[in-house]
Design a protein that fits this description.
This protein is α/β, with parallel strands linked by helices. It is built from 9 helices and 6 strands, in the order αααβααβααβαββαβ.
């Protein structure tokens, strides 16, 4: 298996997830240029105890303003990178076919949160589903790519056939908070009742307001799931 991977890397060399330039052979094992990794900002420890959004150093509150105003359905959220430092990378990952970036993302996620995820005793990793028409056009679901790689590193099984996006929705970036929540009403359906989970981890690329996570969490709560966490690649700074 490793021999095949080495051959493929020679024919189709990996690209750095930060600058998108080709990685030299020795660097391909690290999945990123050493100098580029220094440009990424990771989420620190001073964060909202609900959504994981970074708080200002002067803010001694437990929760960010958003989480104090909104009753979220999930237990807790985690994110790996500061959005501004990785936004270009995520854009290429989503829209330019850079699926190999998922290896780096998963590796850094496991390094940062692997032990914590194990302590949570998660039964299943659930990637945020994409509508079938949109996925057909894009060719893949970036959340599922990321989730699959993380599953292999953590040993937590991934299920991408439990919940579906039942209808196409408008792009969330076009909408305010109320619009986002209305846009997602009845957008997700659980299609398998034979799998019972006590604790799940929802995976997505970016956390903004939590509307998508909340809607998916609601569906799983209705199905009897007691603990629901989420993990995203990136999250923005609190306002």
């Amino acid at each position: 298996m490793q021999v095949i991977e080495n051959v493929l890397n020679l024919i189709y060399p990996r690209r750095c997830p930060v600058c998108d330039n080709v990685l030299r052979y020795k660097e391909s094992k690290d999945l990123v240029h050493e100098e580029c990794k220094k440009k990424i900002k990771y989420i620190g420890s001073h964060v909202c105890e609900k959504c994981g959004k970074p708080l200002k150093l002067s803010d001694q509150s437990e929760y960010c303003a958003d989480c104090m105003a909104i009753r979220h359905r999930f237990n807790r959220g985690f994110s790996v990178f500061s959005y501004r430092s990785i936004s270009g990378s995520i854009y290429r990952f989503k829209y330019m076919g850079r699926r190999e970036y998922a290896d780096f993302y998963a590796k850094e996620t496991a390094r940062k949160f692997g032990k914590r995820l194990k302590r949570l005793e998660i039964d299943a990793i659930i990637p945020v589903p994409m509508h079938k028409d949109k996925q057909y056009l894009r060719g893949y679901n970036q959340a599922a790519e990321y989730a699959s790689k993380l599953s292999k590193l953590t040993g937590i099984p991934m299920y991408d056939d439990v919940i579906v996006r039942a209808r196409a929705t408008r792009p969330m970036k076009e909408l305010d908070l109320r619009g986002r929540r209305n846009n997602l009403k009845k957008a997700f359906n659980i299609i398998r009742n034979d799998v019972k989970f006590k604790c799940i981890l929802i995976i997505d690329d970016i956390y903004t307001t939590g509307s998508t996570i909340d809607e998916i969490a609601h569906e799983f709560q209705m199905a009897g799931v007691k603990e629901i966490y989420f993990l995203t690649l990136a999250i923005g700074q609190t306002t």
